[in-house]
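Two records follow; treat each independently.
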Amino acid sequence: MTKRKLINTIIAYTFLYTLILAIGLMLYFWDGSANKMYYSLFKDLFPILITIPLAYLGFCFQRRSNFMLALRSLWGNLITSVNQALLYTYNQNNSREKYFEVLFNLSKSIDEVRSVYKNLNESEIQTGHYPFESLKTIYKIIETLGYGDVDSKEMEVVRLKIRNNWKQIRQTFLAEFDRSEPTVFDAIVDENG
């Protein structure tokens, strides 16, 4: 469950609980029936009215937790495959085996993204759009580069393209994580401002 979907669910259930509370208060103050019959009925049903949404919220938090585990695993695999692609650009004479290994790992990461995220605007009629197009671009860059003897200037250009695409992936991908600033950290302070 994505962060947005979880937040929307929490907001909806907060509204539901507020509504239940308001109904209970209205029945308590305005129930004119004998022995406050409607309020007594509400009071008897109150545990059920509270328990069912609470169970669903527990389910939502469990789904979010499972989603985060899948996301962290995917993140680690993305780091590995993109860094392999970057390392590939430092060797001007890559073997055919190394070339296919890098493409295989990038392809694996592309499909692993599909196991965690569905395509944007996907429906039964349309396949939609892949959510991290920059990853597919990195694959195409390496595929176009090929293997064997490659010019060092071309490798530099390719490396820069991969880094730029990786920055784009990181920026959009990490937004889904629930990350906090560290309490204690190690940072280099620039004395010049």
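The next record belongs to a different protein.
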Amino acid sequence: MTGKDATEASAVEKSPLAAVIIILVVVAIFAGVLLAKATNGSSDASTQVPGNSASSGSVPVGAVTITSTHNDAVTDYEAALATGKPVYVLFHSLSCQPCVEISAVADKIMPGYEGKVVFVNAISDDPSGQQLASRFQFQYIPTSFFITPDGKVADSFTGAMSDVDMKARLDKLIAQ
């Protein structure tokens, strides 16, 4: 074997080791990117609804909010109707993007309507949310229902809405 052949043989033997090292480096970089995205990306829920001046990022990630609380939607709806006040029912999930967007708007807006409009949170993944949904006519979430004090649907809306639109619909409901 000549010196050149020995060098080529040595390079071939080192090649699998080099390939393993390169694969490990690529996997480590990929894992680092995923970890960074998971820690920083989870607070990136600040997607804005068009026309919405506030982002959902104003609520700390993982915080319990009026739209993230698992509740008995049927009992809450019946109690809301018994108050004789207008009712805003939000059918949504905790995971679909339009649902997350409208939930952020409701979390921001609804405290300003306390005492004027009763909010009913209906998470469509919960059994009580599904039971309450059977009382209404709709196909998609998120869907909002604006109910008059006498229990009639005054308005409904499917999809995310801006804080300006939600306020306008709530103000119109109160004025009826």
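Discussion point: Residues 3-41 form the longest helix (39 residues). How would you locate this feature using only the token line?
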